[in-house]
Amino acid sequence: MKKHFTPLNTLITLAALTLAGGAFAQSTDAASAAKPPATAQNPAVEAITLQPTPAKQQVTASPDVLAPSPMLPTAKAQVKKLSAAEAAKLAAVQRWEQTGVTEALVGAGGVVEYPYGYSRPTITCAPLHVCSIALQAGEAVTSVSIGDTVRWLLQTATAGSKPVMMVKPTQAGLSTNLVVTTDKGRIYYMHLVSSKSEYVPMVSWYDPSAMTRDLSAQAQASARQQAELEASMAATKMAAEQAKAQRIVADQSVGKLDPTTLDFGYTCNGEAAFKPTRVFANDTHTFIQMPPGTSSSDAPAVFNVSNNETELLNSRLVNGYYIVDGKPAKLSLVLGVGDKAQTVQCQKSQPDSLFRWGGQ
Fold first, then answer.
1. Which of 107, 187, 329, 360 sits most deeply, having the most CB atoms within 10 A of its CB?
2. Element containing residue 233 per DSSP (H, E)
3. How confident is the model at residue 154 (pLDDT cuts 50, 70, 90)?
């Protein structure tokens, strides 16, 4: 019998394979015990979680499509940021009147406002961005002309009563002009340029000459109203002073009233609502007490009746009393004219005094 001898390295290899096989069997049994049995709804497929790969390259936008930054107006004019647009325009107009120099203004929302007729502004636009150009309110566009109709896109619109034009260049580095005419006789001339990094988003206009005319008209109207008010106040004051003077003169002309000398011997006939409550007189004046609530607007006229003739008497209504100059024997109070006239007759019968009623 022939004997075979196994090399030492072969034995070591076989031992390692045996140990590895035993470990793999144990791990397989443990995994099988931990996992649920495979079914139709839960297939025996193990999900593998993917880990995000760190970015190794920084992505940047193309220089041709960078978002442009709005820029200030390029017209050769002083630009001031003011919060109140109308106040800024008025201040600019006042400075224009004093110095003859107009200004471009930055109004609400970043709108750049140019003075019409005193500047030909350069408006910077950018590709992929729209520049809006708003004209003045109350006018309509009659024609629009742009120098480059191929590389510049132009669209007209309206915003309330303002005409608006939307301008957009197709590429950077362009230069052209834009002319717009309106039914108000205005001609707007603008120079257009395109830039890939800067643009003016909104442009508008104001008219210093028109605003000066409007301000002048408003000032004249205000001065006229003020003069009329002052004249009316002066006339009212003068009338009040004259009335006061007349009342003082009338009160003084009546003199002192001595109750013991007053003559109450008057009787009144008539059914009108203004029939006097009583009539009495002293040596110089006759007093007619009117019903309560009688005012100067609905008070009757007082006439003297003598020999079938009437004469309008000088009388005045003071605190509910007609004060008549003189001492007529017969009075006629008339309200209205013609067939609609109402009349009350008051006649002196005999001298009588309050202090002699019980003595006769």
1. 107
2. helix 208-254
3. very high
